[in-house]
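DATA CLASS: polypeptide
GOAL: derive structure tokens

***
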Amino acid sequence: MRAVVLHAAHDLRVEDRALPVSPGPGEVLVKIGRGGICGSDLHYFHEGGIGAAIRVREPIVLGHEIAGTVEAVGAGVTRVAPGARVAVNPSRPCGACRFCRDGLANHCTDMRFFGSAMRFPHVQGAFREALVCDEAQAVPIAEDLSLDEAAMAEPLAVCVHAARRAGDLVGARVLVAGCGPIGALTILAARRAGAAEIVATDVAPGALAFARKVGADDARDARDSDAIAPLARDKGRFDVAFECSGAAPALRSAIECTRPRGVVVQVGMGGDMPVPVQAVTTKEIDLRGAFRFHSEFATAVDWLGKGLVDVKPLISATLPFERAHEAFDLASDRARAMKVQLAF
């Protein structure tokens, strides 16, 4: 089979790889149909890693936002059958460590996550024509849901988890700082969770346009001090803020715009950055992290299948995987694209 393999920063190749072996007990062979390019894929592509700690040290197949069709199943598999269309959860927690036992599988100490260089040897990713996964990772999708939409389940799950980390959002005033794909999906998740008002901020006009398209009540240029200052007046107007860019100025602004005893959820991952701790202290802000997801993947698939959220406006382009380098360049251009997918 063929796969999209990163050797080093900007060294992305479509290469032949061995076909997966037949699925074993409890396993499923999936023919990949669609794969979305994530922000972490772009970090690997441009920087050869994420921050200082996560570096590509061997060729790695990228990708983890995928959907496809079941080709074969191993012994004991009952949830899916050949021919079933599925969204594939890229997380494979061990199920045995203390965090898995405590219901915090996203913090598994032996996690295997498709396309991740966090461990060595790296966990190979899903931008390939076929893969074998555990039965639990293959989640059936609704009959009328496209594979394009189903491949959005993974990033949507990240945002559903972030919304849960924020607590009760019914009637809340919400700020979303950073409106790339995760920010836009956070707007959808927060609205579905009951947010009454959502204001988005970003530095890119295209991202602000997407924020309005998916339902933000207001979208403001984060560089315009006259537009941002009123959001921070009287110690801040928002009950909850989601920082989705991983940029220090966005986090600072989010804390400034959140009212005393409000909640700031850090979703974006851009490496370590300074935190205005004095403001967090004096305003008694709850600063919470949100990392990946677990049960929220099934929730995201369910929401998509029932039409409770519409992710179609976010899919900017779909290119054949043989044009992966071109697709990665397009996905890197925020003026032209929100979510770019590969067709297998």
